[in-house]
DNA sequence: AAATCTTGCAACCGCCAACGA
DNA sequence: ATCGTTGGCGGTTGCAAGATT
């Protein structure tokens, strides 16, 4: 049996978006807002899959997108958040205003991964790379560095510390991570009513057992001013 | 100058969870 | 409780541009 396709593939365009298509999508969303991606293409006069429209809007056309190079601060934040959350790109993107999950994912795979490897840090577990692997990486990076004139990474004799401070660093990070609940829309009055009925924050810090120094989480005694929030760290 | 290789990014694909009928 | 639909997410691919040979 299988799933029905998300759209009629035979009559949809694929590949890069043209300026005309972009303009149609922008105009439509400006006039009608986001939502119901399935019916949007037809309504907007686009021969595209709804998913494709959503992706184009989220990753490229949405206003307030910060384009251009990542700053050093953003680099650091991504690395630390990745150490904590793993490949949860959408959550990471939520902490970087103007950046999309796709952009961060690409940036991670093309830049940060390499950067961490060159520092002897395993980009998957954020700990030190196994010595043999590190030597291999060192060799590869040295070759690359020589050809690009980049300073070689410093692999000390004692690699026990290596990049393992990364975990510790995570604890110093002010991860006042909160996941905002979806924007309230009058159409969603039912779900909003449910939220109102359950007005309390869900502390992921407690839920996932992230505790600092064995102290009780402040969620237990704080009077959270914004109850519609998922808390991910004790603040 | 041409051919080949590498890199970076936009877009696609498939899976999954939430939701409503 | 079940099933179909939809939106969202993460992994992967394809292609254009730049770098190298």
From TrEMBL:
> What is the annotated localization of this protein?
Nucleus
Q: Which residues form the Myb-like domain?
A: 9-61, 62-112
* Family annotation (Pfam families): Myb_DNA-binding
Q: What is its main location?
A: nucleus
| Domain of life per record | Eukaryota
Give any GO molecular function from the UniProt entry: DNA binding
Q: Does the keyword Transmembrane helix apply?
A: no
Q: Which UniProt keywords apply?
A: DNA-binding, Nucleus, Repeat, Transcription, Transcription regulation
This protein is called Uncharacterized protein
